[in-house]
Amino acid sequence: MITIQEVVTKAQWRIFANFANQLYKENPYYVPELPGDVLEAYSPDKNPAYDFCESICFLAYEGSYPVGRIAGIINHKSNEKWKQQHCRFAHFDFLDNPDISAALIQAVKQWAAGKGMTHLKGPLGMTDLDHQGMLIEGFDELDMFITIYNAPYYITHMQHLGFVKDADWIEHQIMLPEADDPRIEFIHKLAAKVAKRHGFKLLHFRRKRKLVKEWGKKIFELYNSSYAPLYGVSSLTDRQADYYIKTFLSFVNPNFIKLVVNADMELIALGVALPSLSKALQKCDGKLFPFGVFYLLDAIRHNDILDLYLIGVRPEYQNTGVNSLLMDAILKECEKHQIKIAETGPTLENNLKIQAMWKHFDKRQHRRRRAWISEI
Questions:
Q1: Average pLDDT value for residue range 203-230
Q2: Domain 177-339: assigned CATH number
Q3: Which of 55, 191, 281, 297 could be a cystine partner for 324, CB 3.0 to 4.6 Å?
């Protein structure tokens, strides 16, 4: 018999935070979660998204054995923006038993109905910067640190539960050209031409402190303006911007953050990337201590795969060719650091402008993710 318990005690939170790592510990394509990150995501004292979100988490048990988990999230700010009454689900993992998935979904639906919600959708986090999208293609591809891995049987469960597609993201693996490839010279000349025509300037950073102090807030202001029309996005607050500056910008290698300004030194475009952490996290099994942090630092310094995290352009500059400056700068860093492959990360399937950035490169679409939706 399957029973559902709300996550309340420290012991339950440990089980919730470690569940996927245990479920997929023998899977060579799964990238372990950092349990501390999971716990922080659902801590109102630490996560500023709780200024406009509320959540609940459940565990499923068969007897005394944990067999599944799920979180329910209501983002009131997003609902107000999109004029919806939607609840999100996240961290939805379970053994291949339809009774488990059904019981978990029903628990969240019952909670959401009591809050006046009309639909349940996900997997989606509290913000667009959280993990989102259930894997539906690419189960035999090494996952990224910033994405969700799940088994193929999840798809059948979602369909059986009456969920349908709400949005899809696709991912590409880009084979980067060698330094003497004519495509490199073409992009370099194009970037120079665009910069001269519009008075654009690329900013380089070698010191993290200068980047964070002078441009941290502006980076997230640009994020808000460039991502505003995208599926499920609600703008980040000042408190959230401060949070991500502290937890994200302070961690990345400044060599792989590229900013473009106009003639008035206003930020108009950004690209944020990081050498892949996937294999390092597999080595340390999602544990930062005692040795995991050293695996991560080594991955940042020595790697042949680059994960592309964010690309954003202010709406009024999206048809100027400014992307060429970002591409040129990132390609130069890849050559310098001997990086051969770039992972685009999830891009909405209808976001053709971003996908067009890679039209000159050899690439393959190797993963697809889905947000599902169902009436409550």
A1: 92
A2: 3.40.630.30
A3: 191
